[in-house]
Amino acid sequence: MFANAVESMLQDHCTLAVVRAAEAGQPPQLLRDVILSSGFLDLLADEDDGGGGLTLREFYPVAALCGAYAAPLPIAQTMAARLLVTPRAALPDGFLTFAPASSPAPDGAGVCALVPYAMVADHVLLERDGVLCVLAVADAKREATGVHAALGATLYWRVSDEQRLPSQLAHALHPLAALLHAAMMAGAMKKAFDLTLQFGNSRVQFGKSIGKFQAVQHQLSVMAEHVCAAGMAAEAGFQCGRHVPSLLACAVAKSRTSEAAQVIASIAHAVHGAMGVTAEYELQIYTRRLHEWRMAHGSENHWNRVLGQSLLDSHEPLITDFVRHITA
Q1: Which of 149, 192, 202, 310 sits in a 20 to 30 Å window from 1, CA-based?
Q2: Residue 3: closest CA among 51, 77, 55, 46
């Protein structure tokens, strides 16, 4: 029910024109206002705290929709912040994004490198010395990543005026952020696959649609396998009720979706040919995000190392036993 309502809102207000305008530096003000006034940002907050009381299992389709519509705002992150901070009134108004890491700058202030959505977010949530803190983006100098139309940026604060938040879950910020990106990638992958399948069926070459050629069919089947496997891995990470997901469940989800992102993007562009990279066509909007989100909060290499070390440190006699306990 909630996913349907959120999708209806995104269909009306998160159009490709809005996404392109945001990437060109025009804030999506109408989309911001609609989402802020809808009350959907509190879906994950406890009902006793005035929220929707949604479980993570129920939240997965909502997070995936943010990727499927290439939402130019950190909608999923702002919603998920309600899991980490209680009461929700302790969070500032506006849209929040999660910082992958933070470190002191040479002048004693602070820097957060390669923060997703930093160009459009109002505040940044970060973990520092086991404490959850929030900083205003308006007080920072934003340095673009240099990637065309990317919404991420590195943030520098001359004066670190951070606010500490009431939370016992600071350690969960990084894994949760990775899991959210896994869900958004799953949504974007499905959209890229749908566009590729449609193009393969409509583009005619040598008297028939290119989707009827065996070589193209093989590529599409490989793409479909990765889309399905990545979606299953991402959704599995959300099967934990109202609790914060386990580190290993997040690791599996982000590792598998990041691995699939490269394959899916390359096949999509191979089937589309030159059409796929044109600004007028929408495929590049999704494949650019797949490459950007693959690196956000750890690529597959990072999370594979986490999984490998956990396996070596475990006392399970068989790898299958280790795998079964990941989402337990």
Answers
A1: 192
A2: 55
Block residue for tokens 């940044």: 124
Bridge partners of residue 128, in order along the sequence:
131
At 145, list the tokens: 């990543």
Sheet containing 103-104: order of strands: 103-104, 110-115, 153-157, 141-144
**Phi, psi (deg, nearest 5) at residue 43:** -60, -35
pLDDT tens-digit map of 68-104: 999 999 999 999 999 999 999 999 999 999 999 888 7
Helix (H) or strand (E) holding 124: strand 123-128
Residues 311, 226, 255, 257, CA torsion sign: negative
pLDDT tens per residue across span 136-172? 999 999 999 999 999 999 999 986 678 899 888 999 9
Q: Describe the crossing of helices 29-38 and 2-13 by its angle, rounded to 10 degrees.
A: 160
Where helices occur in the chain by DSSP H, the ranges are 2-13, 16-23, 29-38, 56-68, 75-84, 173-202, 214-236, 247-272, 283-295, 300-313, 319-324
- Comparing 322 with 33, the larger pLDDT belongs to 33
What tens digit of pLDDT does each residue of 293-316 get? Answer: 999 999 999 999 999 999 999 988
Which residue, chain included where needed, has tokens 């009306």? 12
DSSP 202-230: H-EETTEEGGGSHHHHHHHHHHHHHHHHH
Q: Cα angle vertex 225, ends 220, 226, to 5°?
A: 100
What backbone torsions phi and psi does residue 110 show, to the nearest 5 degrees? Answer: -140, 160
- Taking residue 280's Cβ as centre, other Cβ atoms within 10 Å add up to 7
| Cross-strand bridge partners of residue 154 | 143
- pTM, entire model: 0.95
Residues 6+ apart with CB under 8 A from 297: 98, 100, 116, 174, 177, 178, 181, 254
Helix, strand or coil for residue 101?
A: coil
Q: pLDDT over 90 for what percent of the chain?
A: 85
